[in-house]
Amino acid sequence: MVVADVLEAADCEQVLLVRDRTADATALVAVHDTRLGPAHGGIRRLQYASLHDAARDVVALAQAMTWKCALAEVPAGGGKCVLLDRPGLDRRAAYRLVGRTVQQLGGRFFTGPDVGTSDDDLREVAAVTKFVAVAPAAGEPGPGDLAKATALGVFAALSALAERLGRPLAGLHVAIQGLGAVGLELARCLRAAGARLSVADVMPERVAQAVALGAEAVASERILQLPCDVFAPCALGGVITAAVTAQLPARGVCGAANNIFADGSPADREAASLLHRRGVLVVPDFVANAGALIQGATWHLTGVVVGPERLARIGVTAGELLDRSRRADVPPSTLALQLARERLARASA
Ligand code: NAI
Question: 325 to each of 163, 164, 209, 286, how far by Cα in Å?
Answer without folding.
Answer: 15, 11, 36, 16
